[in-house]
Amino acid sequence: MESQQLGRTPYFYGPEGALVQVDFALEAVNRGSTTIGIKTKDIAILASQLKPTRALIDPAEKIYPIDDHLGATGAGYIGDVLKLIQELRLQAQKHRLTFDSPLDVKTASEELSSYLHQYTIYAVRPLGASSIIAGSDPTGVQMYQVDQSGTYFKGSGFAIGAGSERSLEVIQREYNPNMSLEDLVSLGTKAIKSVTQDESQIEIGVVSKSTSRFAKLTTPIQTLQ
Amino acid sequence: MESQQLGRTPYFYGPEGALVQVDFALEAVNRGSTTIGIKTKDIAILASQLKPTRALIDPAEKIYPIDDHLGATGAGYIGDVLKLIQELRLQAQKHRLTFDSPLDVKTASEELSSYLHQYTIYAVRPLGASSIIAGSDPTGVQMYQVDQSGTYFKGSGFAIGAGSERSLEVIQREYNPNMSLEDLVSLGTKAIKSVTQDESQIEIGVVSKSTSRFAKLTTPIQTLQ
Amino acid sequence: MESQQLGRTPYFYGPEGALVQVDFALEAVNRGSTTIGIKTKDIAILASQLKPTRALIDPAEKIYPIDDHLGATGAGYIGDVLKLIQELRLQAQKHRLTFDSPLDVKTASEELSSYLHQYTIYAVRPLGASSIIAGSDPTGVQMYQVDQSGTYFKGSGFAIGAGSERSLEVIQREYNPNMSLEDLVSLGTKAIKSVTQDESQIEIGVVSKSTSRFAKLTTPIQTLQ
Amino acid sequence: MESQQLGRTPYFYGPEGALVQVDFALEAVNRGSTTIGIKTKDIAILASQLKPTRALIDPAEKIYPIDDHLGATGAGYIGDVLKLIQELRLQAQKHRLTFDSPLDVKTASEELSSYLHQYTIYAVRPLGASSIIAGSDPTGVQMYQVDQSGTYFKGSGFAIGAGSERSLEVIQREYNPNMSLEDLVSLGTKAIKSVTQDESQIEIGVVSKSTSRFAKLTTPIQTLQ
Amino acid sequence: MESQQLGRTPYFYGPEGALVQVDFALEAVNRGSTTIGIKTKDIAILASQLKPTRALIDPAEKIYPIDDHLGATGAGYIGDVLKLIQELRLQAQKHRLTFDSPLDVKTASEELSSYLHQYTIYAVRPLGASSIIAGSDPTGVQMYQVDQSGTYFKGSGFAIGAGSERSLEVIQREYNPNMSLEDLVSLGTKAIKSVTQDESQIEIGVVSKSTSRFAKLTTPIQTLQ
Amino acid sequence: MESQQLGRTPYFYGPEGALVQVDFALEAVNRGSTTIGIKTKDIAILASQLKPTRALIDPAEKIYPIDDHLGATGAGYIGDVLKLIQELRLQAQKHRLTFDSPLDVKTASEELSSYLHQYTIYAVRPLGASSIIAGSDPTGVQMYQVDQSGTYFKGSGFAIGAGSERSLEVIQREYNPNMSLEDLVSLGTKAIKSVTQDESQIEIGVVSKSTSRFAKLTTPIQTLQ
Amino acid sequence: MESQQLGRTPYFYGPEGALVQVDFALEAVNRGSTTIGIKTKDIAILASQLKPTRALIDPAEKIYPIDDHLGATGAGYIGDVLKLIQELRLQAQKHRLTFDSPLDVKTASEELSSYLHQYTIYAVRPLGASSIIAGSDPTGVQMYQVDQSGTYFKGSGFAIGAGSERSLEVIQREYNPNMSLEDLVSLGTKAIKSVTQDESQIEIGVVSKSTSRFAKLTTPIQTLQ
Fold first, then answer.
1. Fewer CB atoms inside 10 A, N or C side of chain C?
2. E-strand spans in chain D?
3. Which chain F residues are within 8 Å of D14, Cβ to Cβ?
4. How far is A61 from chain G (nearest CA, A)?
5. What is the value of ipTM here, to two decimals?
6. Residue D104, SS3?
7. How far is B6 from chain G (nearest CA, A)?
8. pLDDT for A102-155, tens place per residue?
């Protein structure tokens, strides 16, 4: 009996061990809005290009407050990003109800990682979205990147979405651990502008150790010079 | 062992990260009735072409009251549009029962977005329908578009269904934030007529800040000159 | 890795957005008995060809009383039509038990529409049957067509099944809102005869505003001249 | 992307609207024992060829008492026929327990129809068996044929299984509504003999208005001349 | 759209109405041990070849007591035969507990038939085993064959497994309804020896009306001359 | 319609009635450690080659105590063998809790057989492991082999895993029902050495009627001469 | 009927008995970080290369404390490794709650083995991660490797991930059961450096009999010379 007559099984790995659908989902992330996160010891900003839309349509929100002290942003399919944000908000509320304390940034990232990972094991669709989470907790101002595969990283400079390689280079080259909020906003804007050719807005969220509050900057920044 | 002998898994993404069935569902939306929404600060209208039917058959309703202060319209498979409307009405009722207050327009859009998104994750059929939701709530008169993928946008001018590109251009070109109800109806009618060649009726729904009530205009408008 | 090696997902849409199985189910409907509905303000009739059977076999019933004030007919796979009728009767009984009032014609059609729509979303068989529902309720005598996809229409003249285009033309050409019951029966019979070449019986059901009762005409009408 | 790369869905309809597996199941029925039913106003008989078996093996029973007043026969896969009989007996018992009255013949047929229809909707095997049901109830002596698709017919003369066309012609040609039990048995035997070439037994069941009892004739009839 | 692009459904029937997997399962049965059953009015024997095994391995049991008055044997996959025996024993115990009486042979066969039939309807493996059941109950000494498809037969002489055609011919040729136990054992042994070329043991079980007990003969019979 | 367009069903049997996946699982067993069991009336030993590992890695255990009086060994995928051992231990504990007596060897084998058989019926993976079970119970010292298909055998000499044919021949040739424990160990070691070319350890377990205890020999035996 | 027309079943084994997806998952493990474990009678270390990341991104943690006395490391998909760690921590907590004592190293390994094995039986994704577990329990300092297939080994020197063969050779060549902690760290570092060409950090965890505590070394070791 020839092997092609043997039947067919649900499979997940290609012959080299690659997770086929998870890798395809990354392609969706890589076509998303250019999105970055930068932090110093006391301040973190999240910034994301608001993709240009038709004249009378507001661009989709890209910086999402999760809890008083916690915010997130994402790149990839909008519906999938919204799903992640919904999950993060749910976890933050559950944590407050269960432990009567705010969800720390690491636990938030682990919960999101675990949530995304489930979608890679069963015959459902792995979500096509990565995210950056920033917040202030008793350990200080923290920032994590959580990928569509459920992998997460802690760090001071992240970029996801279209042209993430190039914008991360900008951040690495000009990063300085003593930057002020103004410096961070300026660097984040520059990193995104290095990728986006045409005029587009940038939405920015900030959390600082002094206030322990995550908030969006009220006016999005124009990339047009 | 050759890779074509490896078995087969349910998959959702094509190699470039596109969601294959969701994109096909968009094709169904793009063949639907030309449907638009326009709003100023105080008034929003929803308008949709009533596809011509046989002489003794009433065209299918296209403007749906959801709650006193809230209405919606849609384009795509009629059965799928009806399903969305049913879901919106259910959410509006649940909100009143749970919170004793009307469902605000943003929450309605988020609920619908989340509902549509579920159908993109599992091995079921993604719905082939987009919708525009308009209503009056404590934040004013608001309008959202929710797509078949679960993505939503806030805005002052939307068009979905057949020829949506062309009718959106008409709206953008002639839109003026100070338009009266008469102006809005006139512009919406013109935007739809720019696409539909032959005689067909247009059904229109209106919600204004002053009344906080969503209602259909009693007489559909004839596109025939 | 070649795309044909990517695996296979359950799919529902063809590349142009068509619902493949639902369209095939329509083919089954289009081979069913020629079936019509006509109404004036005060009277509605449903009529369906009884397909000729062997000498000693009674033709299958085609006009189904649903409740005192409500009746239906259908075209397509007999087993599927019977399933719809069963569902309509169940809904009518549930409505009486829950609200202590007869099910209105619009709600009956919406319930059936929603029931049929479910079969288009999951990996089950979409039903291969369309139906026409007529009844008398506080809004008057009403008539709806519900298609195999879950779409429904309100109107005064419908035709489904084999040759429905031709019989609908007959109805449209000769329809007159002032027709008597005799006129309606005569027109319905003519519309069906225009399609069926050979001798066959026609079963007819009637509901009028004055009696608020749906009943079959006692003697089926012979199409043979 | 080529359409053959789109994935695969469970499907039920062929492009012309035919139910592929249900039609194949009919092929199984058409290879079953020649089986007939004939009735007058007061008497019904069911008769089925007992397929010749090896010398020491009893042929499988083909006439099944369902309740005192009700019997059935079937053609197709023996295991499937047995399943139907089991279902009918269950329904008859449930009816007596629930309503304290015998199951009428029409309801029995509708229940069986509905049972068979379920197997055509989901990804299970449609049963490969048709049946004829006869009984005496307050409406008189009644007889129904229920097909593998869930379709049922009422009538005075039915034939299913191998050569059913030919045996139904014999019945139609010689049927007379005034036939006695002896005439019915003679005609039923002749109809089956017209198909079966070699010697085989015929099992016969009878129900009459006078006794309201379904019973098998004690001696099967030999087809050999 | 080409038909090969339509998708794929679970299917059970081939185009001629054959049950593909059930027919393949029969191939497994036909490669099993040669197994027979013979009965007169008062005595039944079951006999099965014990397939030769390696020197230090006991051949698998082939005659299975089910209850005091009931025994069974089988041919096909050993694991599947064991499953059937387990099911029969369970039914016998349940019957005693529920009705306080021994399970009659016909009901045992019907229960097993129904159990096997379930495996032919769903997307699971039809069992690859047939069996012969013999016992003494108030109706006398009875014997049934139950096939892998769920079909069952009553009779006085059965053969299943490898060469069943040839051994059944031996039984039919020499069967005599007045045979003593010794005659039956002798005939059963001869029927099996007609198929098995090399030396192998035969296990035999007996049930008689006088004792109403099923028991294995203590010494298996050698086929070697 | 061509048969390759008919759809696809889960299938288990090849056209000759072979269980495709179960046969492939046997290939995994046949590549496992050479493993044997030998018993006399009063003593049973289980012995298995410990596959050579890297210098600092202990070879995986191959002789598993199940209960005081019961032990087992296995060949095939280590994970699958461990699963079987877990199941046997669970059954032994359940038996003690339910019946307050040790699990007899035959019942242990039947339970394991039934457990393995389940994996051959549904669309899951049949386990790739065979086992030999030995113990002392009121019927004496008993030994069974249970195969990956759920088939089991009782005997005095078994061999499974790589080269099982050759080692079983050694056992059969030199077996003597009066062998002492030393003889059994010597024969078992020789049977395994006949297959394994290079130096490897052999783990041995013993159960005897006098002690009714299953225990591993403390020092594994070196195959190197 | 040709065999390629027979239908398709989920399958797990290739024709030679290989578990296709489990083998592919191993490829993912073999591309993971070089990770080792070495132990003497009283001390065990786990060490893993921290894969170099972008400048502002912290490398992912590779040494995971499980409980006071127990730690683990892993190689393969990060999301899968995290899942294993989560499972180990859960088991450790459950053990403390149920038995009021710390989980011993062997039971931890068996639980993880059983957990991983489940993913190889059903139509889900086998996890692409192997792990090394070390801890101190009443039996001393113990170390186990648990593979992606659910197989586990006990030992004094393990290597998994990229270049595991080469680093294991280094360990085997220079291992000495009397090594001090400093020797172990030095050897582990050398074994990893033998594989990793470029500068990368190594994270190290230690558990010793004297303290019965598992702890990470505070400063990762630089591989750069």
1. C
2. 35-39, 43-50, 63-67, 70-76, 129-137, 140-146, 152-154, 157-160, 201-208, 214-216, 221-222
3. 1
4. 26
5. 0.88
6. coil
7. 8
8. 999 999 999 999 999 999 998 889 999 999 999 999 999 999 999 999 999 999
